[in-house]
């Protein structure tokens, strides 16, 4: 009989992309993906280890699922992703309601493993690979709006930032064959998709070696952009140390490559950046910001920042606030430092900033960023943007929302417009998170 699989995803965009690969591997073998956990035979939880609270959330979810299992004794639970890689033994020993544990490079083994689990075994596969890219697998977009999609272009990371667990959970960096990437983009476009986001932990170091010469990230992006001028191209994430002028020039040459760069700063202090093993100084980072503004004057810039890393002083923290004032980010993901086992920091540094100080510093960054984002948005009032319509607004179905090239959400009256098409929208108002506008004929 056909078995139903329910997939639940936590963490970064890469994990969401991986879940679509898992969906493809399992449907090829006759499993059916279900949106109803109550009707499922297997629950797959794709997990994140980036901060301790991400892992705590999964432990809590496992306790909730225990209750579900008493009502549905046939249900088998598997842990996928970064926590599977990091905590294989602990999960197998301490979580008796977990039947299988699968690391990020072992998803091709899932059909065999599910068969073993059905026969009564508990199994784990967490070997990391230096080659696996799942390049030949066309992801199943089972939870998609049919308009925007992720394309994974590389896996792993070997930058070894002192705070980060990713090199340990996702292994060595490797790039995917550009032909399969462009093929996937073309197929998405033909199915009606109008935006793809190329994903990797550090897309700037994408490189494919072949007999006809190497393909680097700017070249790859140009090839994807050439699929159609109506297909928008985004990418994440760039490491500031590798953000090249040639990438910015390529972006400038293709209007459908979106004007938005996510450039995680992590800290504004030279001492902290060195201790974090980031391989750039605040001056270098600001030089890259200047280069973005030079080649792409209308580009939005977003970031990640960590408050309270090992040894961070009040002065270091003020340097971060100063960086935020200088760059004026359009959006920021802001975190409190969380010590992760196995990292350089865990082995060599002390988690010595008290939690209340971390919280206070984080709140200061959040408050400053809130003001800057609102001021930035106010400057957009009166401008007209081309917007890709994604769907009904969350507030009212008389309104639609879409994004401009800068990735800002704009809400406007529905009229006779349809999701998946482009419209020109003039901005008439804003909050710190959203722009409000009205549809116009042409800019
Ligand atoms: N603690 C807090 N934040 C972290 N990040 C990565 N590791 C940690 C950690 N140990 C943040 C970084 C990274 C983002 C994905 O998560 O800012 O860019
Ligand atoms: Fe993604 Fe990193 Fe979390 Fe893994 S640990 S899911 S790579 S954010």
| Architecture (CATH level 2) name of the largest domain | 3-Layer(aba) Sandwich
Round the mean pLDDT to the nearest integer and report it: 97
Bound molecules: 5'-deoxyadenosine, iron/sulfur cluster
Q: Profile the largest sheet.
A: 6 strands, parallel
CATH topology of the largest domain: Rossmann fold
- Using the alpha-carbon principal axes, give the shape: globular
- Rg over alpha carbons: 22 Å
Instruction: Give the CATH H-level superfamily of the largest domain.
Output: Methylthiotransferase, N-terminal domain
Low-confidence stretches: none
CATH domain class name of the largest domain: Alpha Beta
Q: Total number of β-strand segments? A: 21
Number of domains: 4
Supply the number of helical segments.
13
> Taking strands numbered 1, 2, ... along the chain, how are they ordered across the largest sheet?
2-1-3-4-5-6
> Strand content of the residues, in percent?
15-25%
Q: From the helix content, strand content and strand pairing, which structural class follows?
A: alpha/beta
Q: Tell me roughly what share of residues is in helical segments.
A: 25-40%
Head-to-tail CA distance between termini: 57 Å
Describe the structure.
This protein has 443 residues and is of the alpha/beta class. Helix content is 35%, strand content 23%. The longest helix is centred in the C-terminal third of the chain and has 24 residues, at 355-378. It has four domains: 4-125, 3-Layer(aba) Sandwich (Rossmann fold), CATH 3.40.50.12160; 144-258, Transcription Regulator spoIIAA, CATH 3.30.750.210; 260-379, Transcription Regulator spoIIAA, CATH 3.30.750; 384-440, Nucleic acid-binding proteins (OB fold (Dihydrolipoamide Acetyltransferase, E2P)), CATH 2.40.50. The termini are far apart. The model has no long low-confidence stretch (mean pLDDT 97). The protein has helices spanning 13-28, 52-71, 82-94, 110-118, 166-170, 178-190, 217-225, 245-253, 270-275, 282-295, 314-327, 344-348, 355-378, and strands spanning 4-9, 32-33, 42-47, 76-81, 98-102, 123-125, 148-152, 154-155, 174-175, 195-199, 207-208, 215-216, 232-236, 260-262, 300-307, 331-336, 384-392, 399-403, 409-413, 422-430, 435-440. The protein binds 5'-deoxyadenosine and iron/sulfur cluster (SF4). 5'-deoxyadenosine binds next to β15.
